[in-house]
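Journal club prep, shared notes

We agreed each person brings one worked example of a sequence with its structure written out as tokens. Mine is Exocyst complex component. I'm keeping it raw so we can talk through how to read the token line rather than staring at a rendered picture. Sequence first:
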Amino acid sequence: MNGKANKRNGVENGNFGEDLVLANSISNGEDLGPIVRLAFEMGRPGPLLQQLKTVMKKKDIEIEELCKTHYEEFILAVDELRGVLVDAEEMKGELSSDNFKLQEVGTALLSKVEELLELHSMKRNIMDAMTMSKNCIQILELCSKFNDYLLKGQFYPALKTINLIERKYLQNVPVKSIRMVIKRRIPVIKMHIEKNVNNQVSEWLEHVRCSAKSIGQTAIAHTASLRQRDEEMLERQRQAEEKSLSGHNDYFYPHDVEFIDEDCFLELDLTPLYRAYHVHTFLGALSQFQDYYYKNRTLQLNSDLQVPSSQPFVESYQSYFAQIAGHFITDERVLRTAGRLLVSDQIEIMWNMAVAKMVSVLNEQFVHMDSATHLLLVKDYVALFATTLRQYGYEVRPLVESLNNSQDKYHELLFEECRQQIANILRNDSYGQMVMKKDSDYENSILLFDLQTSDIVPTFPYTAPFSAMVPDACRAIRSFIKSSVDYLSYGGQTNSYEIVMKHLDKLLIDVLNEALLRTIHSGNVDLSQAMQIAANIALLEKACDFFLRHAAQLCGIPMRTIERPDDTLTAKVVLRTSRDAAYMALLNLVNSKLDESMALTDKINWTSEEMPQEENDYINEVIIYLGTVLSTAQEILPLDAIYRVGIGALEHISNTIISAFLSDNIKRFNVNAVIGINYDLKMLETFVDKKFHITGLSDMFKEESFRECLVEARQLINLLLSNQPETFMNPVIREKSYSSLDFKKVASICEKFKDSPDSIFGNLSNRNTKQNTRKKSMDMLKKRLKDFN
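Then the structure, token by token:
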């Protein structure tokens, strides 16, 4: 029993716990659904129902207790509630009446609302229709605008328009069929635009190739004009510096610097290319277009680099290089303005290929050129070409080096041309003094080359001391200097003046001097020609200073820098040597003519029985000839040359007299022959003394006169006519009176000397004391000379 009671109590306690949980859940207003669901799932709905009843009983008890506690308040609340109920009924009646009235009024309004809703629906439909119509109109307008762009060839705006239709408006087209038509046409339209753009680019490529020569010529001509302007400015600056150094500080020269945009004078329309670039960029086909453009430009360049065989290079070189210049000027503009169509690496590849080809062409053409003028023209144009392309950022050093390598070839051709010119000048020269009839002749032939001997302008007609060969040769040499400077001016040479001096020296020595020497030693030159050649060489030697100044001026070298004593031409010394050779040739001709006149062995009676009373006939001929030579020389030769010719001729006369006494054809001679030669010598001495003073040589050469050139002959004659010839052996007397005589010559001559005429009665008729004394003295001299030897 106790066990069952405990068990029942346990169950009751368990049920009590569950009732408590259920009561708390109900009090808290919690959802009992999960608890009910759990009870049914566990198959125990009975206990749950029992618990609910238990909870309900508890709540009833609580309510009953609560009512008992608040009974009076509850009664009052019920009374109030009944009052409220009465009021509610009244309000219900009023509401019913109001509702009826409202229904009557609302019926009319409801019909209006329905009409309004219908109108709103209509409005919405109209608005939708208007929106669709607006979309259609916009599409139609864009299509119309696209057609206009397409007709005008404005493909890039056309593409932007079609892209706008496709991206923004196409999906709003209400009609599917129209939308599909437009959608299918868009790729076709893009292909059409791309095809047209490519055609335009092809036409532009052909056009720009045809225009490349004109573009290159224009750019090169502009470079030439800039170079000319710079040269003029440098020349004005040089003149200003020289005037400043000379004290004239009021000289002004402008420093205007003009900046010119090359784009303003190059007529180059890149619009088709820009259009194609933007179109292909828009279509996403830029890489294909880049390859297409680069490939075509490379093919065009390869074609342009081929030297035309239809005409000589000297006739086509300008077109050849202008075409290449135009090509790369165009590509430089494309690189600079056409986005990423070209890259610098591609242009560098094309340029390196072009430079290699041009260098090869120039080397080959220079080898076969036979004219310095042609080579200079080509070189000058290529230098302008290189300067022009350098301004556009291209590396032209290999091209300039190729031009510099042709320097020797150019000067070889220039030497050959000058050699022919000098040969023609010498061949055609009359070797007569040049007569100038007016001021212009004097300026062009004398003042131009600084050949004047005085600052006073002579009266005309004026006879110059040189022949036409001198100004002609100076012009040829001046032209050579100009050509050499022109060749070196624009090749990057920093020492052009030294190079010009070197080539000028070579020209004067190897060409002009050699030609003069060949003429001198040709054997076909007479006395007047030899004299004129000697005078010409003296003037050419003087002209060397002009050549040096002219070269410095053309090279832009200040004159003060070339006035140093060590800065001169070697050719000046060489020409001086050649002038000496001309003097020797002149002197040889004079001596040859003197030899003809002084055949003393035939023209003198060496054993005359009669004492002569005057000079021999030959001496008059000699004096006349010497007078003619010295007078002619005085007109064209400088005083030192006249002096050299004079002393050379007189020394030759003196030697001829000595040689006559020593000749094997003269076995003996007597005093009468010596007396005759003494008359000759006195007459010659008188003549040369007079000439020495008349020509002005006495003021310049005071140490040795013409007379002193005859001293050996005079001392020999004095010895042979001396009353005491044995005094020759006295050292003091010999040093004073016979210092020029040679012992062996005197001994040989004295052996032939007989102090009496060669006749049967000579010894009887000429015996006197004086003769005997002189004879004894002569015999003593002969003996002593024999002992001395």
